[in-house]
Design brief:
By secondary structure, the chain is α/β, with parallel strands linked by helices. Helix content is 35%, strand content 28%. Strands 1, 2, 10, 11, 12, 13, 19 and 20 form an eight-stranded mixed sheet that branches. Strands 4, 14, 16, 17 and 18 form a five-stranded mixed sheet that branches. The radius of gyration is 21 Å and the shape is globular. The chain binds flavin-adenine dinucleotide (FAD).
Length: 398
């Protein structure tokens, strides 16, 4: 085995691991990132690109709990589950049900609200630091409601956002069309988040981030960590063909972090919400900003020279292949809004790292600060990358 010694080893080169690497390097630490694939090519590549400072509502809510079965049975619903994964998923689902109870949901929303509150300004600063400002668009985000009933059903969430100071504007059906004239009319109107920003190409931003990390002097080690254990003077990682000895390790392996956390005696209830996207190459885009038809659980995302339709939640674990039924549902429902969309130019699926309460795990492991957890960002990992990096930096400075 080739031996490497370092001050800090970060496991995982997604947006979370890379943002942490850049920050810790700026703090003057010696850092390596261990990543088997192209950095930033996991969930951090395929997302909807929204820096969602408004996304304070956890996935588990009293309404989701009430409607869970009907959501599973509706072929057009945003939620699907693989029955083969049910036995493994059961503990996560049980906790998810608990976290969806009224008191827990309010508490979880409060914790998320605190984390996302400065996301737009933090990302603006972060993008400038990595030379990606030209990929930021500041036109807000729009939720659509098909019917008045659907809009009324969202009133508890709207009130909760208001209480947490989220900037949001209720739009009539006519006002929605003024903002996005190519959309078909929706009876329920819309909800506009004027301060939200978005990335017009998350993949290219990941390239810039990874280059900035490398230029800052961080070494990338192309390997997968298979074992982690504490030693007398730090932490030992097995990452064939390497053996790494680090004073401090940050676990930022996204949806794959659970096994590593368990190996250091601090099990967490991390699982994955698989998400999908389909893309259409087109020079003229039908929307100006991310638009989410809430009933379908995806975003129309304007990207450079293409429209990305990204979202859905499939509970199905890390090993099963993509489910073509879900990409077909994405394409079918996208055509309801824009019938001119033909066959997708490409399709993708990936793994959101998801906790049952939708609150990311950013803390020292129970055994001590020599191992830091930074995973479980679910639907808002892109949004929270700069904030997570700051929090980890503070934890290591203490
Ligand atoms: C369809 C979809 C839409 C989304 N839309 C948004 C959005 O609009 N806004 C938003 O904020 N978030 C969004 N998200 C969520 C966001 O993409 C994720 O929360 C975020 O990318 C998680 O980043 P990460 O670095 O933790 O994980 P990842 O990007 O998955 O990176 C983890 C990395 O760890 C590596 N790794 C795994 N195991 C090991 C190991 N043993 N050793 C070494 N390395 C390892 C992997 O190869 C991977 O590169 C969306 C997600 C999906 C799927």
């Amino acid at each position: 085995m080739n031996r490497i010694s370092t001050d800090i080893a970060i496991i995982g080169g997604g947006v979370i691991g890379l943002a942490i690497a850049l920050r810790l390097r700026a703090d003057g630490r010696d850092v390596i990132v261990i990543e088997p694939n192209e950095p930033g090519s996991g969930a951090s590549y395929g997302n909807a690109g929204t820096v969602a400072d408004y996304a304070i509502i956890p996935v588990g809510t009293p309404a989701v709990l009430r409607n869970f079965l009907s959501l599973l049975l509706d072929p057009d619903s945003p939620l699907a589950i693989r029955t083969s994964a049910l036995p493994t998923l059961f503990p996560w689902l049980a906790r998810f049900a608990y976290e969806s109870l009224p008191r827990r949901y309010l508490k979880n929303a409060g914790r998320i609200a605190e984390l996302v509150s400065d996301a737009s300004s933090a990302w603006t600063e972060f993008a400038a630091e990595i030379g990606a400002s030209h990929f930021l668009s500041a036109k807000g985000c729009l939720y659509l409601y098909h019917t008045r009933k659907a809009f009324q059903a969202a009133s508890a969430d709207i009130e909760l956002r208001r209480r947490h100071g989220v900037s949001q504007e209720l739009l009539s059906a006519g006002e929605v069309l003024q903002l996005e004239p190519r959309l078909p009319g929706v009876d329920g109107g819309g909800l506009f988040f004027p301060q939200a920003i978005n990335l017009s190409d998350p993949g290219k931003v990941m390239h810039l981030l990874s280059s900035a990390v490398q230029q800052a002097g961080v070494e990338f080690v192309q390997a997968s960590v298979t074992a982690i254990a504490r030693e007398r003077n730090g932490v030992r990682l097995v990452a064939p063909p390497y053996e790494v000895h680090a004073r401090t390790v940050v676990i930022a392996a996204g949806a794959h972090s659970r096994k590593l956390a368990a190996q250091v005696g601090d099990p967490v209830q991390l699982d994955t919400e698989r998400g999908y996207h389909v893309e259409y190459d087109m020079p003229e885009l039908p929307v100006e900003r991310p638009v989410c038809p809430t009933a379908h659980g995806f975003y129309f995302c304007p990207m450079q020279d293409r429209l990305r339709v990204a979202g859905l939640v499939e509970l199905g674990g890390l090993s099963a292949p993509a489910n073509p039924r879900l990409t077909q549902a994405l394409a079918r429902n996208a055509r309801r809004f824009f019938p001119e969309l033909g066959t997708p130019s490409r399709i993708w699926f990936g793994f959101r790292p998801s906790m049952p309460d939708s609150v990311p795990v950013i803390r020292p492991s129970k055994g001590g600060r020599d191992i830091i957890f930074a995973f479980g960002h679910g639907h808002i990992g892109l949004t929270l990358a700069p904030r997570t990096a700051r929090l980890v930096s503070t934890l290591l400075a203490a």
